[in-house]
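Working notes for the structural subgroup meeting. M.R. asked for a predicted model of this chain before we commit to crystallization trials. I am recording the input and output together here so anyone reviewing the notebook later can reproduce the run.

Input as submitted:
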Amino acid sequence: IKEWLELIACFLVDQSRSRFPEVESIQFEPTSAKLQQHTIEYNIRLALESSVALPPWRGNRSTGGSSQIISLVKEYLDQNYHLPLSAKIISQALGFEQSYFVKMFKKYSDDSLPNYIRNLRITRANHLLIHQPFLSIQEVCHKVGFKNHAYFSRVFQQVMGTPPFHIRDM
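Returned structure, recorded in token form:
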């Protein structure tokens, strides 16, 4: 019941912002990880729903428009890579079974969803390291959506071939 109430609260805040612009100043921050996940799911669905017809909320498969859905998901990821996104969250938001959505993403993007998100984050981190040298590596790590600094450094070196602190020395 608590989850549903939190989800309804997110929905009501979004609805009131669209109807009453003065409510825009009210900041609604999710207090629990579950509420944050619901908020992200809702925002993903809201962002994509205006451009493409999505299936009803849970467990359905799509018969058409899959490449368009994947391209819209990629656009969303390009703008929101810093959020805690996963295949589970995205597939639930769009109303697909997770395994089906992961296969569909790989088919239409030639890369797995986790690799796509990881590479996107590392590319953005590289850009920040080069163009904003006043940011610490830890700040860059958090800005692009990584929670663990050591993991970020390891992944950065795997993808870019050099540790993040060497980027500044170049």
